[in-house]
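Morning run. Coffee first, then this:
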Amino acid sequence: MSFLNPILLFGLFGVSVPILIHLMNKRRVERVWWGAMRFLQVSVEKNRRKLRLEDLLLLLVRCLVVALLALALSRPSVREGSAGVFGQARVTAVMVVDVSGSMSASDGVRGRMELARSAGEELLDGLPGGSRVALWVATDTVRRVIPEPTSDFNLVRRSLAELTATDGGSNLAPAVSQAVALLQRQQGGRKELLVVTDGQRAAFSELPGMVRELQAVKGEVASTVVLVGTEESQNLSVSELRQATGIAAVDRPLRFSATVTNHGLAEARDVRVVLRSDAGSGAGGVSPPVDEGVIEAIPAGQSRTVSLFSRLAPAGFHTVRAEIPADRIPFDDARTVALRAVERVRVLIIDGDPGSEPREAQSFFLRQALTPTGEDEASRWFVRAEVATASELATARLDDYDAVIIAGIADVSPATGVAIGQYLQRGGGVLLFPGPQTRPELLNRELLEARAVLPAGLEAARGDLAATRPAVTLSGRNLEHPIAAVWSDPASGNLASAGFFRRFGLKLAASPAVVPGQAAAVEGLPRTVLLFSDGTPAVVERTYGQGRIVMFAFPATTQWGDLPVRPGVFVPLLYRSLGSVLSRQDEQLNIRVGSPIQYRPPSDWLSREVSVVTPRVLAEAKQGETRRVELVDGAPRVLFDATDFAGVYRLNPPEGIGAETVRFAAQPPAGESATARLSLPERQPLAEVVTVADYAAPGALGAVTRSRAGFELFPMLALGLLLLAATEMGMAFWFSKPK
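And here it is:
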């Protein structure tokens, strides 16, 4: 039984008040000698003992009234040891229901989410009358459906019945921590944390910390974890989908790489993968397939990739979806990407050394690679390249171009460094090739030390041009970067065919970089794209503001190596690097489920309302949700955070503005597809601090209800207080009668 709390202690101190009043008002007798009083002396002596007894009885009753009031307000309860004697204590509880992607699984009869709702109902039914419950849902974030504990169980049941599984990830630790904090703030009574989940291992990724936190409050908060469903032994997921061509040009074949992962225990065979363009725009919300492929076999625990092709038209925003046949965990059977098809890409090449003849120019091979057509077709090619000299860089209108390629410049002036930094900050793309004339110390001073633009510092050139064989080649190892991933397929060409007699050293910049004098300006982490065969960086990149820069350790000429005359390597590398810096502008189109959509529209959208159509709204043919375009950090912005489901999100422009619909794609987290649940040894530390119950069918939670014992004393104390107060009033009236 627990009684010691501030309200009770303060109330018990108040018991002294009636005593003090009694002492202060004690009858004072002044002795006056009067002859006739001797005849009353006998009567006074007779009643004195009776009056003293009445006063003491009244004092005792009043002290009991104050003490009982304090005791009732502290809401004490008899705990487990009194089960079956007093009944059950009223409970203040927080119910946390897992609604992550794995909760969409089904055993073919009942889904995990259906079982979770049923388990929640049983937990509610088992609570004593007068209890209060809050209802929260958890993925890797927390949403408070009913934020504070309420005694309106009809509201809780209705909210529970409306819960559905989302496509989000799993992490129960934030929900558990926040629920414990809420329960600790509640006054009196029994406190319980009720968690309903499928027991997926990913949801308990922070299990040691959860166990420590629940152990620390075990005497104050009783916790129960209900595990629904059974472990699924098979699951295939589309774990990745990316545009692998480089530049998404209008009405040209685009290659998409779809990766399928087998999370099950047995090999999967003949897996059919279908590609749909502009998913959801066809009749009935389903677009016809544009391509399909079959993966012959995927061993357990491994992934396989298939290439699929599509064309996009007209220019503008599009979505592409790869899907596999539905299985018992359906949320990960498809993946969608959003991208923007371009009619034409404008590229400015800054030539740092034009040479005495065309083939000696730093821009020669770049122009040939960017426009690999005859002169009569060059005007119709989707890449339009223009050439300018290094002296024109500081005054060039860089914002007129989608990307700038800087080739072979000797150094950079402060004004040029500012122009390049501002261009990248606004969303531009830069490819930087050093040349034989480049002075590393000057380039580093303006673009790395002063502005933190470069992903790496340029070190002194190394190698011997008089050697009979190249010092290094490009390496076929560590091809995780999107630019380099295409060479993971041997059919895409051999990187080692490109040799270099001489090249610059690249030393990756600090991570993260902070611009001197601008403590808040933190830029993206530098990443290695390709390595040389000796393990040193050959190509590196980093994001800067809204833009991206790719830096090479070698010239774009044949002066130091033969890469430019290896078209099977040079042309794909150039186009994929160009596509990478262009895609930076559209990265905001693809988000993780649960992350907010943030879009910067044109200025004429400011203070207007836009509508956002979600995947669920699109499937149900309902109206979208509206959002107002607000000014944030000096620019218009639309924020939409209700992204619980994977698929296409359409942002329709304000009425009266002739702009196209912007398409976004939310993608489920790949880690949520793992089928493994907590094993018995993994559950053991949790079972030592909480009650763990398996729930496979209705009626399985009787033991949880039976373990809840005790009785809250407030009703009995309140009744006793009323009776005692009535007794005090009666006694005071009776004792005050003339004697």
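The longest strand covers residues 268-277. Good start to the day.
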